[in-house]
Design brief:
2 domains, globular, ABM_dom, alpha+beta, Alpha-Beta Plaits, Dimeric_a/b-barrel, ABM domain-containing protein, about 35% strand, four-stranded antiparallel β-sheet, 7 helices
């Protein structure tokens, strides 16, 4: 499975006023890297000042090679003036294809952090696997923290309910016994790839 990189930050007004023009050189740089399969971006629905970029890589090695390139610091440096807070990043290899989740009208992102004493591999994994049986839902542990998993789900605008639907059959209640869950939504736009 490909590796997915999530990058997000609170953006300046200047950035938000002309996102496509400001981010274009970054998209061009990343998309030209060997192994870049797709790039999406959008704003977080709960906080329209938070910009999200999602990069789908053939492998973590391809992503690392781009980061090790001589011009990588210049690319990051071009963006720094547009951060109005901390840049955050997670890398995940999901259990199935992510295209349906990222191309949906709304992508719901669940950060699932294991509570003390519960390993993600145990009962959490069972609940996450049940959740990912939905067509547009997939999950994986972050490379940064083995106790943190990310679930993504593609939804139509009217479906967005943070797991309150009978379609979830108590899965969220089960997960919340073993994990803290943060839910957010974004409307991603494909800017590179198929």
């Amino acid at each position: 499975m490909p590796m997915v990189e999530f990058v997000w930050w609170p953006a300046t007004h200047e950035f938000l006023n002309d996102i496509d023009a400001v981010i274009r050189p970054t998209v061009a740089h990343i998309s030209s890297a060997n192994g870049c399969l797709g790039i999406y971006h959008g704003l977080q629905e709960e906080d329209k000042a938070k910009f999200w970029m999602v990069v789908v890589w053939e492998s973590h090695a391809h992503h690392q090679a781009m980061m090790n390139s001589a011009d990588y610091p210049l690319m990051v440096g071009r963006l720094k003036p547009y951060f109005s807070g901390e840049l955050k990043m997670n890398h995940v290899e999901f259990d199935k294809d992510t295209a349906g989740s990222f191309s949906a009208p709304v992508t719901t992102i669940y950060f699932v952090q294991s509570k003390a004493g519960f390993a993600a591999q145990d009962s959490l994994a069972h609940g996450l696997e049940k959740l990912s049986k939905r067509t547009s839902t997939t999950w994986g542990a972050t490379q940064e923290d083995a106790e943190m998993s990310i679930v993504i789900e593609g939804q139509a605008v009217g479906e967005v309910n943070a797991g309150g639907s009978e379609l979830y059959d108590g899965i969220f209640e089960e997960l919340q016994k073993h994990a803290n869950i943060e839910v957010l939504h974004t409307k991603l736009k494909l800017v590179f790839g198929a």
